[in-house]
Design a protein that fits this description.
- By secondary structure, the chain is an alpha+beta fold.
- It folds into two domains: 242 residues, Rossmann fold, CATH 3.40.50.300; 138 residues, abc- transporter (atp binding component) like domain (Coagulation Factor XIII, Chain A, domain 1).
- The chain is built from nine helices and 21 strands.
- Strands 5-6-7-3-8-9 form a six-stranded mixed sheet, sandwiched between helices. Strands 10, 13, 15, 16, 18 and 19 form a six-stranded mixed sheet that branches. A four-stranded antiparallel sheet has the order 12-11-14-17, with no helix packed on it.
- β8 and β9 form a beta hairpin.
- The chain is globular and about 75 Å long.
- 33% of the residues are buried.
């Protein structure tokens, strides 16, 4: 999106050729040796930022995306003045209000109210100005009596409520948010983004780090992508998000994307005794896996309209997910299952062979079988996670997990312009009147 409030003649943040190097020591004694022999190097250099340039204009919202460890938080800390760069220049114009890592700038022994007053004084507000802002802070955070309790008793969500309420009420010219909103509950997140919209209308410049590509597309005028401390791309949110997703789904493994591949042909070209799943570009290393190990999901493939895919898919695609299972022991009363969830854990679809009742329920030790699920991807844009599982039916326990791999596959459905939500329901709109000539119909797939 592009905001009409952006003033390209007023620079609020100007970062020029910023670098940041950390000295890392393998042993504590090496740090002591370094102090006695400064001309000799006992440390290794880690360059968190490598010559980054960035200009943010008045009223502009800039999203910063990149993998973990790419330098996003370091860049924001340099802009806020928390960190000094190794080289380069950073200039800001106006009051900066920052919401960085949880608990930053808070004294755990102080109450929420005392911490709010402390942060306000650090920001340069007088006692009278703070008391004028206090009702808005109390109303926005909604913590009630917890404001009078030490923040060491707060949950992470309560921390975010207080920190964001203080940050947005400090009359900032520049607001900086570093992924902290991901901790809050979904209703409070929506409340925060409504306030961010209001700040944009007031001409506040906003920088925020996020892994939510939908937020970048919805709220940002521009986006940048960092990787390994370098500024790889700056441009429109759509352009940067697409490049970020392609980078996230890249892999050292050669995923053959040729349309000549027939997904109906099943041939074992992998070692079934190894976990080949981790090599797929769509694999989620943060999966949850458990089971008794009598069988193991050792490989999977994802086909998009008949062709192998890395995980970047589109609404309406025919999706075929094939998992390979190696049996270590004889197992009877087998159940195979699949679940598709949103990125916040809500199931949008699930089924299993017990419900369908069409698959063999007994396999012997040493068997290698392939189970294929076919889905029509009637989903709107966003990130989704696929869970695969093998279980054994049990009379009293319902099912015994054999190998369950929750959120193992990461899929990203490309941007949707004409609708929002999760499900594509073929929405139609129609205006009808008594006069047939005035009746109009608008149809779109959503």
């Amino acid at each position: 999106m592009s905001s009409s409030n952006v003033n390209n003649s007023i620079e609020m943040v100007r970062v020029q050729n910023i670098t940041k190097c950390y000295e890392t020591y393998q042993k504590p004694i090496h740090r002591l040796w370094q102090s006695f022999a400064p001309k000799k190097q006992f440390y290794q250099e880690f360059w968190a930022l490598k010559g980054v340039d960035l200009t943010v204009y008045k009223g502009e919202t800039v999203g910063i995306v990149g993998k973990n460890g790419s330098g996003k938080s370091t860049l924001l800390q340099v802009i806020t003045g928390i960190l000094q760069p190794t080289s380069g220049d950073c200039k800001t114009n106006g009051r900066i209000s920052a919401l960085l890592e949880l608990g930053a700038g808070f004294n755990p022994e102080f109450t929420g109210l005392e911490n709010a007053r402390l942060n306000a004084s650090i920001m340069g507000l007088t006692r009278d100005e703070f008391h004028q802002k206090l009702p808005d802070i109390v109303d926005f955070c909604g913590l009630g009596d917890f404001l009078h309790r030490p923040v060491k008793t707060y949950s992470s969500g309560m921390f975010v409520r207080l920190a964001f309420a203080v940050a947005i009420n400090m009359n900032p010219d520049i607001l900086i948010v570093d992924e902290a909103l991901a901790v809050g509950d979904v209703r409070f997140q929506r409340k925060c983004f409504r306030r961010i919209d209001q700040l944009k209308e007031q001409g506040v410049s906003i920088l925020f780090v996020t892994h939510s590509t939908d937020s970048v597309l919805q709220y940002c005028d521009r986006a940048i992508m960092l990787d390994d401390g370098e500024l790889k791309l700056t441009g429109s949110p759509k352009q940067v998000v697409q490049a970020y997703l392609e980078m996230m789904f890249e892999s050292d493994v050669d995923v053959k994307a040729s349309t000549t591949v027939n997904p109906d042909d099943y041939s074992v070209d992998f070692d079934p005794t190894q976990d080949n799943c981790v090599a797929h570009p769509s694999y989620n290393a943060n999966e949850e896996r458990w089971g008794d190990g009598r069988a193991k999901i050792c490989h999977y493939e994802v086909f998009q309209n008949g062709a192998p895919t890395k995980g970047l898919v589109q609404r309406g695609d025919n999706l075929r997910i094939r998992m390979s299972v190696l049996f270590e022991n004889d197992v009877n009363e087998l159940i195979y299952g699949i679940t598709v969830k949103t990125n916040d854990g809500n199931a949008v679809y699930g089924t299993n062979s017990r419900l369908v009742g069409s698959l063999p329920t007994h396999q012997k030790a040493g068997d290698l079988v392939s189970i294929e699920y076919e889905l029509t991807l009637n989903l709107l844009s966003g990130d989704y996670f696929v869970s695969l599982g093998v279980a054994q039916e049990h009379e009293s326990k319902d099912a015994i997990p054999v190998d369950r791999r929750y959120d193992m596959i990461h899929l990203h459905v490309s941007e949707t312009q004409d609708s929002f939500g999760y499900a594509a329901l073929d929405g139609k709109m129609r205006l009808t009147t008594d006069d047939p000539e005035l009746t109009s119909t608008s149809e779109h797939i959503s």
